[in-house]
Specification:
single chain; 209 residues; mainly alpha; 12 helices; elongated
Length: 209
């Protein structure tokens, strides 16, 4: 795919979704971080249901760090991997409360040192909260990169590096949310909605309808 077509694709995605943003519900930087940790291999809808209950009783790092393991598990038990996620959010809350005055650090090294925070989660936080031009490659973006020939790669990191390099600078800050929303609602894994796709004429997916 050449640079002109890639730029046109992003312009159409931006026109279709002028203000792309996360669908996770949060009221503070801390709450977004916890929600993103919980969202691994789980839908945003499912996460929003549990965080509504969780943040009602523990809205900040200090409060969440004081919850018991059992009480926290009981609140988030409806989402996948809840036992490990419970440990991660309790430990992360304790660290933030003790070392960062409850605030979310704005650099990759500090973020990735937190339990439950890997490169993808760190990228989401850096992009969404701190407006850094980074792309968090989840299953939707990985699929899009390879399916429509936007940035092919065998691993999420490879796709991330190619997308970061090839995405026009004016769209780089929004690229993560533009792509994830397109993958979630239009370019689906099983039955892509090609008939309503705003970039259909530019798509290089050989199996498109």
């Amino acid at each position: 795919m050449n640079a002109e077509k890639r730029a046109f694709i992003f312009s159409l995605l931006k026109k279709n979704t002028p203000n792309p943003s996360t669908e996770l519900i949060y009221q503070s930087d801390f709450q977004l971080l916890i929600a993103v940790i919980l969202s691994a291999q789980t839908t945003d809808i499912a996460v929003n249901k549990v965080t509504q209950k969780l943040f009602a009783i523990a809205p900040n790092a200090n409060a969440l760090s004081k919850l018991t393991l059992e009480a926290t598990e009981d609140i988030i038990k409806t989402i996948g991997l809840y036992k490990n996620k419970t440990k991660h959010i309790l430990k992360t809350s304790a660290i933030l409360n003790q070392d960062y005055k409850g605030e979310v650090p704005n650099n990759r090294k500090a973020l990735e040192s937190l339990p439950g925070v890997g490169r993808k989660t760190a990228n989401v936080i850096l992009n969404t909260l701190f407006k850094e031009p980074v792309i968090a490659v989840d299953t939707h973006i990985f699929r899009l990169g390879n399916r429509i020939n936007l940035a092919k790669g065998k691993t999420p990191l490879e796709v991330e590096k190619k997308l970061t390099k090839l995405t026009p600078k004016e769209y780089l800050a929004d690229a993560h949310h533009l792509l994830i929303l397109h993958g979630r609602y239009t370019c689906k894994a099983i039955k892509p909605e090609c008939q309503t796709c705003c970039i259909y004429d530019l798509c290089e997916f050989k199996g498109k309808r």
